[in-house]
Specification:
Elements (H helix, E strand, L loop, with lengths): L1 E6 L8 H14 L4 E5 L12 E6 L9 H4 L3 E6 L10 H17 L1 E4 L2 H10 L7 E2 L15
Parallel strand pairs: 1-2, 1-3, 3-4, 4-5, 5-6
Length: 146
Amino acid sequence: MKICILTTDINYKISGGTIYNAHLYEFLNKYTETKIEIIEEVNTYPFDINCHYILDGIFISENIDLSKLANYSITFLIHLWPSILQSTTEKKQLFEQIEREIGKYFKLLFTGENSKKHLLDTLKIPDTGILIPPGVNWHWKHKNIS
């Protein structure tokens, strides 16, 4: 089955998340047909039943249509849960409810321990995700800085 990593145009910016996504793509592409697609809106995206999707967590929003997404093979890639960034209690609770639904019904891939801990401690969802933290190759003594 081919894999498609869906993200936004944020992928054109240099950040830890986009570097992580690029390395994830390179790794997966060694074993199966993989591509990264830049899209604007996940709710109107024409999903293919014959593809597995890795959906960047940046798409988690108030209007995400989880019932539509449940019809496809999807793993959410969580760099940071959006509820953590909310400034009001009302917004935080709204996003936590959306995150609970995602945690219950979708596969999860975490890029950091804090996102996994949020699932367990705040959202009270059993650990069903995979943690793949960023880092350097094991044989490197240090990062080379030019």
